[in-house]
Amino acid sequence: MSGSNRGAESEERDVVAMNPLFSRPGEATELPRNVLPPGESFPETAYQIVHDEAMLDGNARLNLATFVGTWMDPYAQRLNAETADKNMIDKDEYPATAAIETRCWKILGDLWNAPDPASTIGTSTIGSSEAAMLGGLALKRRWQHARRAAGKSTEKPNLVLSSAVQVCWEKFCNYWDVEARYVPISLEHKVLDGFELEKYVDENTIGVVAILGVTYTGAYEPVEKISAVLDEIQAATGLDVPIHVDGASGAMIAPFLQPDLVWDFRVERVVSINTSAHKYGLVYPGLGWVVWRDKAALPEDLVFSVSYLGGDMPTFALNFSRPGSQVLLQYYLFLRLGYDGYYKVQKASQDVALYLSGEIAKMPQFDLWNDGSDIPVFAWSLKKGYTDKWTLYHLSERLRTKGWLLPSYPMPVDLEELTVQRIVVRNGLSRDLAASLLGDIRTEIAFLDALESPMPVEAVSKGFHH
User: Do the Cβ atoms of 168 and 128 come closer than 8 Å?
Assistant: First the structure.
């Protein structure tokens, strides 16, 4: 195919030209790029065009920027193909899928040490961003009910979170008119750890978000310690502030690799937890979960009873129709791996992360921020004063020529002068691939160190990669 063009050519050409090998007699040899074609094409032709366009995407296994999983075994692929047509919202037509959804969040409630897993309540979502927003909505509504019951104003709610929080929480506060109170991280307090929390909490605080696996660096925020500080605040002021744990990554790591770490429903202030099934839950993209400690933690007026295709069903979601296949894939993995299987997969990723971080720590060019002993994610910075010839952005660009995607980006407010580079180790990054990566890093550092003058900075791409 010659229709997959990059750069200026793709902007100038309004048509996709077909290779004669893939066109049939009577078919057009060119198809419009940005408008609907006037006639039909053979399925083989349409497939080949889309297939060839998608070839320009990167190699997912070499993308060490994303947390999102990209591989499932052949039986999962088969199940996915068989069930992609199921509508998750239509519990009347697909009662078995609905029952499996309930089974999954009860399994998660048990995994996260809910006092009574049978009395938890939860839902599947498109991803952890939707799950986080549902958790935030429940916090806001609970606060509103309590304020009204006390005859107090429900204006100006606020949410306390780390300055290193994922962007979905900024969206939540923006979309639902909640003031975001960001606690800045620093070199002394690399995560939200309860330090000076009393300066941010007041009677309008709907909750505190604790992140189990900060997106910037992969480090855990100490939920139990944050809760202890909130206990002190309550003793001094009477304010009873709940915690939502954003476990987008860590909620599917900690139960297996750090089972003694107290971060979940064992902490009484934790009322809800979200996670990404398509991250370390190991499912294809498109699935998240949120679970509440018990039914009292989710206000009833947020749950709708919908009459749909002859049945009544409860629903609490921002989305409506969506494929049910990912939910079935999650249950498949629960059955396929069990606790021991998840432990082995996550431990293999962590072992690779510790190997990589250990080798990078030995390099004289870098200062390690963390080592991947929380979730298998770690970051490092360029040693201050090491060189004026290149930056981590240049190293990222050099590694991209080898196919590796390693993001470089500035840290949050108050640390924005510090640039870090990060690696996310996911299932599929083997020890051998990691060794190849280290070889490429050393090769590109040698190239950059040998420069006689500084690299240009004008065209360097600076941005945060989720």
Answer: yes
DSSP code, position 23: -
Write out the two tokens for 376.
Answer: 């298998």
DSSP state of 209: E
- The DSSP 8-state label assigned to residue 284 in this structure reads P
Where are the extended beta strands (E) located within 108-234? 121-125, 158-162, 179-183, 205-211
Query: CA-CA distance, 211 to 253, in Å (whole number)?
Result: 13
Q: Which amino acid is at 24?
A: R
Tens-place pLDDT, residues 324-336: 999 999 999 999 9
Q: pLDDT per residue over 153-199, tens digit each?
A: 999 999 999 999 999 999 999 999 999 999 999 999 999 999 999 99
Instruction: Say which residues have a Cβ less than 8 Å from residue 195's Cβ, sequence separation at least 6.
Output: 183, 189
Q: Which of 26, 6, 18 is nearest to 49 (CA)?
A: 18
Residue 281, token pair as written in the block: 């839950």
> 291: which strand partners?
122, 273
Per-position DSSP letters for 422-454, written without gaps between them: EEE--TT--HHHHHHHHHHHHHHHHHHHT-SSP
184 compared with 28, residue with greater pLDDT:
184
The CA-CA-CA angle for residues 370, 372, 374, to 5°, reads 100
* Of the candidates 298, 430, 416, the residue with the CA atom closest to the CA atom of residue 355: 430
* Domains observed in the chain: 7-57 (no CATH), 75-334 (3.40.640.10), 345-449 (3.90.1150.160)
Distance from chain centroid for Cα 149: 36
